[in-house]
Specification:
FAD/NAD(P)-binding domain, eight-stranded mixed beta sheet, 15 helices, alpha/beta
Length: 498
């Protein structure tokens, strides 16, 4: 028999843990969190590669209702962030509500009983409400390269780092030069005998102004939390200013562009290598990479930056389109995630048996980035067009959680079983988002990026300031929803089962 909870949460990263805590604050304790791994942490549990760290300042990378006064650096490392999440889960009594080793295989809305039926790798569950906290960076993306299956060496993705594989003396190929690669390549370079870095597109970079947080600062934050809140506000508004250039007037980013080029000239004296590393698109069109050791690493004698395309992979080598064959024994993918096709959508079905992916018709969209027409009581955290290119996603998660909690209050106060957004309003909302998106640097900057789907639409980012998305999710708007109520017979049946 399936285990029942009023609210089922999928995932235990920032989204899932934040949801569980805020629900408990609201008096909703009949909650279960289903997690495929053996501990909490989400992307900060999975991405344990050497040098893994956040490119958002530490002061912004915690819940506003659970600030961390003990960050050791201004930009936090993966181990510290993971420790923070584990401590948060432990201190707030979330661990007992977690079901680890339960990968969600399928979720179906039962239109008769008006509840979700979730099948996992280790059992079945039912819930009145389903919250997706899986996030867009949970499923690694590996490109389809001819001959990849024939490679006889060791292969892994940065999000599934093989810590047992010693890179000392190895001939290593790294495919991809995004945010993850720029962090782990400098860490593995001293070990490798030869390091081939395959770059498809150069990235704009800015120096990582990282520093150690002094004991005095940590003491002040611990004793006077108001000081940390003030510092947090200051950092938030400083980062928010970037959105002005990204979404309103790209010319404003000229100063940052010049700083990036100046840094490149200073750190890469070789004009040939420097040309390879100079982006040919507008600053900010792709995610700006924050790093201080990427360029110096590429100048090391055992490192080769390869900009020719890969023609094929052979058992012990990689062949590029110019015919060059490079012997390698280790292949590491730093190629990001399935961020725009939302793989979890293939596992979620509505009352008619249609998958979420199928109903989207290759154009993912959600009302206020959170709810989806045809899928009652489904709340998606970090859904379509809720991502940010300039500040902390924790801010967006908290904003969406306020909307979810307000919706659940509405269900209880008005004795409604479920709500789903009106399709026409969802379409209208997403049309406004896409119209606004056309004015941003992400659409006008002349690049291709993981922000874009295979149709060239940016369905990952919010086309404005983060505070405008917070305003859009500040309060649940019942007039935009269809309300559903269980029949008396079903209510009696479910009451008898319980």
């Amino acid at each position: 028999m399936a285990e029942h909870a009023h609210v089922l949460i999928i995932g235990t990263g920032f989204s899932g843990l934040g949801a569980a805590h805020r629900l408990r604050e609201r008096g909703i304790t009949d909650v279960l969190l289903l997690e495929r791994a053996d501990d909490v942490g989400g992307t900060w549990r999975d991405n344990s590669y050497p040098g893994a760290a956040c490119d958002v300042p530490s002061l912004l990378y915690s819940f506003s209702f659970a600030q961390n006064s003990e960050w050791s650096r201004s930009f936090s490392s993966q181990p510290e962030i993971l420790a923070y999440l584990r401590r948060f889960a432990r201190d707030n009594g979330i661990y007992p509500r977690c079901r680890f080793g339960h990968e969600m295989l399928e979720s179906r809305w039962d239109p008769e009983r008006m509840r979700w039926h979730v099948r996992t790798s280790r059992g079945e569950f039912t819930g009145d409400v389903l919250i997706l906290g899986t996030g867009p960076l949970s499923q690694p993306s590996i490109p389809d390269i001819p001959g990849l299956d024939s490679f006889a060496g060791t292969t892994f993705h940065s999000a599934r780092w093989n810590h047992e594989h010693d890179l000392t003396g190895r001939s290593v190929a790294v495919i991809g030069t995004g945010s993850s690669a720029v962090q782990f390549v400098p860490k593995i370079q001293p070990k490798a005998a030869k390091l081939h870095v395959f770059q498809r597109t150069a990235h704009w970079t800015l120096p990582r102004w990282d520093r150690k947080v002094s004991r005095v600062e940590r003491l002040l934050y611990r004793r006077l939390p108001v000081l940390q809140r003030l510092a947090r506000y200051a950092v938030y508004w400083g980062r928010e200013s970037f959105a002005l250039g990204f979404t309103v007037q790209p010319k404003i980013l000229g100063l940052a562009r010049r700083a990036s080029l100046r840094n490149l000239r200073r750190q890469v004296p070789d004009p040939v290598l420097r040309e390879k590393l100079t982006p040919k698109y507008a600053f900010g069109c792709k995610r700006v990479v924050v790093t201080s050791d990427w360029y110096p690493t590429l100048t090391k004698p055992n490192v080769e930056l390869v900009t020719d395309g890969i023609a094929e992979i052979r058992p012990h080598s990689i062949v590029t389109t110019d015919g060059t064959e490079r012997p390698v024994d280790t292949l590491i993918f730093g190629t990001g995630f399935h961020a725009t096709d939302f793989p979890i959508g293939r596992r979620i079905f509505n009352g008619d048996g249609a998958s979420l992916t199928g109903t989207w018709h290759d154009e993912p969209g959600a009302y206020r980035g959170t709810t989806i027409a045809g899928f009652p009581n489904l709340f998606m955290l970090i859904g379509p067009n809720t991502g940010l290119g300039h500040t902390s996603m924790v801010f967006i998660i908290e904003s969406q959680l306020s909307y979810v909690l307000d919706a659940l209050d509405h269900l209880r106060e008005h004795r409604v079983t479920a709500v789903e957004p009106l399709r026409e309003l969802q379409i209208r909302f997403n049309e406004r988002v896409q119209r606004r998106m056309r004015r941003t640097v992400w659409s006008r900057g002349g690049c291709s990026s993981w922000y874009l789907d295979d149709q060239g639409r940016n369905i990952a980012l919010w086309p404005g300031f983060s505070f405008t998305l917070r305003m859009a999710t500040r309060k649940f708007d019942p007039d935009a929803y269809r309300a559903l109520v269980r029949s008396r017979a079903v209510q009696d049946e479910l009451a008898g089962v319980r």
